[in-house]
Design goal:
Strand order of the largest sheet: 3-4-5-6-7-8-9-10
Number of strands: 10
Shape: globular
Distance between the termini: 32 Å
Strand content: 5-15%
Radius of gyration: 18 Å
Helix content: 25-40%
């Protein structure tokens, strides 16, 4: 597995990581044994980067990773967590005292003294322009509660504001073949500044696997049911904000572009991996087999120019108008 330097944090991480939202909640139930099996399979496939958050299952995802770290202390895993979504989303809650409390909880959940990386978890837009917020984050580093900090964002403008901060190690942003806008300004700016890019929602909540039809039904406790139109949180978190029926049709076209021997999901991950400036992509997995298949995408041959052009054309025809109007 290729390892890339993680922005200003300096450490190296696998170019394909593992997102662990699904191990906590909001994707239907995943039991503890299955969750630990997913983590183990990912590591055996070369993954060294886990992404989690304090709200994934109200800490369950962090706790499962913490148990795994205790069982596999020599695995060399870099764990990125997030904070800020456990309280009402108003800028006034983004204070040093709250940051200390939130990171103390995450450190306890993960069983570590120092968090490898803590990210602001898609906070209100005004937070990104607050000197006090970034001063507080610098204090967390000085107090050795965290080794580095970054932000997870909804929009390109939020990402650019964070990249401009000298202490920002990374930006996590939605990037996939159905969400190309970050390639225009955000990824080049991060690359110039030495800021890592974590590509999230890489399979557009599963659309890019090509496994869904217009008639696919998801569980009631799956965000692909209850947040399809942004009812509970930002719509971009679900299917990358793409209309489901339009996305299903576009995914059929995308699947036809997969090279021989590769699945549509692996093709999407390979596309992300070869975007200059991307540090790691964090697909989720609900089974060991999914984790292994995702990791294998890192070993695929680079997609040829003809395929890259065809993906760009698909985006322009079917997706661009939706994505650029909001994000």
């Amino acid at each position: 597995m290729e390892q890339r330097v993680f922005g200003r944090a300096g450490r190296k991480v696998s170019v394909v990581g593992l997102g662990t939202w699904q191990l906590g909640a909001d994707w239907g139930d995943v039991n503890e044994a299955d969750a630990l099996a997913v983590l183990d399979a990912a590591v055996e496939a070369g993954v060294t980067f886990f992404d989690t958050a304090d709200v994934y299952g109200d800490g369950r995802s962090e706790q499962l990773i913490g148990r795994f770290l205790r069982d596999r202390p020599d695995a060399g895993i870099f764990v990125a967590t997030k904070m800020g979504r456990r309280m009402p989303q108003v800028a006034e809650n983004y204070t040093l005292d709250n940051f200390r409390a939130w990171t103390d909880r995450s450190r306890a959940n993960l069983g570590v003294d120092v968090l490898d990386l803590v990210q602001l978890h898609c906070p209100p837009s005004s937070v990104h322009s607050s000197d006090a917020v970034f001063d507080a984050l610098d204090t967390l580093v000085a107090e050795e509660r965290v080794a580095a900090y970054g932000v997870s964002v909804e929009t390109c403008e939020e990402a650019l504001a964070a990249i401009a901060r000298p202490g920002t190690a990374s930006v996590q942003i939605i990037l996939n073949p159905f969400r190309l806008k970050p390639l225009e300004r955000v990824v080049p700016a991060a690359r110039e500044a030495g800021v890592g890019i974590i590509a999230r929602v890489p399979l557009a909540s599963g659309l890019l696997t090509g496994k869904y039809t217009r008639d696919t039904v998801f569980a009631e406790d799956d965000h692909r049911t209850y947040n399809r139109h942004g009812e509970m949180f930002d719509q971009g978190e679900t299917f990358s904000g793409v209309d489901f029926e339009e996305g299903v049709e576009a995914a059929v076209e995308f699947g036809e572009l997969a090279p021989e021997g590769a699945t549509p999901a692996q093709t999407a991950l390979r596309w992300i991996v070869q975007q200059p400036g991307v540090t790691s992509v964090i697909p989720g997995a609900r089974s060991p087999e999914q984790a292994q298949a995702n990791a294998a995408a890192a070993g695929l041959a680079p997609l040829p120019r003809s395929t890259l052009d065809a993906i760009g054309d698909l985006y322009d025809r079917r997706i661009r108008a939706q994505a650029h109007s909001r994000w």
